[in-house]
Amino acid sequence: MIDIRQTLRYATYLTSIGWKVERIDGVNYFIKKFPLIGALLKIQRPEKIDFNTVDKLCRKYRIFQVIIEPKNSIQELKIKKVGYKLSKHPYLPTKTLQIDLTQRQTEVFDNLKKDARASVKRGETNKTKEYSTPSGIRKWQAAWKSSVKFNRYVPAVDHLVNLRKSFPNDHSLFLASHNMSGRIIGGALFTTSSHEKINDIAYYWYGFTSSEGRSTLSAYSLLWQGILWAKNSGYKIFDFEGIYDERFPEESWKGFSHFKRSFGGTEILYPSCYTKLKFPL
Question: Which of 3.40.630.30, 2.40.37.20, 3.30.70.141, 1.20.1200.10 would CATH assign to domain 103-235?
């Protein structure tokens, strides 16, 4: 199945936020230019790795560093053989959970842990709404910013708007839950990987809750609605886009990983990130 980073829609999105994208023989090559020192080349979970193309792009754009995040162990062996070194800090999550959406809805729900099933039902008391217009996404993003500490990363409004433009209609879903007064108390963003009219993977891309949202368990019902949306849209796999990986421990990941694990699914492990310096800085 095609990873979202290798779709045309994702290439369009990266272009809209300032990256140069070369799509060659079905593979996305992401290039970020920097003044004076050249450019960075990033290749993420491609279907194949062509080192001749990598070398040509390095010459064309004066690449000073190449970053490759292989899709499988076979690719990992190939890039190690040509001198790429393991990075201590992967860009993509190296461990995730995936749910098989070809099961019946009742089977998917039954695979949730008991507490999660109860939390989904409790969270359903919150009203939910989809946001798809730029003004709606601006309101959605403002609610996210007000729900977290100032030092937490929240994507800029224009990045989220461009993401929606790149993944229009049923290729993305901005969902929010509200309290009785209509204030947003939680939100979730779902994206998808599809190609040639084949619906492969739906992703749980971002999620947030305010203190009130946490007390009313809004995150559970939002995530469950996203899973149902993906299933009803014909996607085969629901990907949680990252959980805690003991190989690259990030303590802050433990909390939301516990939350994601309560929905069941199968663990998927990916190789880490590999890099090679091409020119001295």
Answer: 3.40.630.30
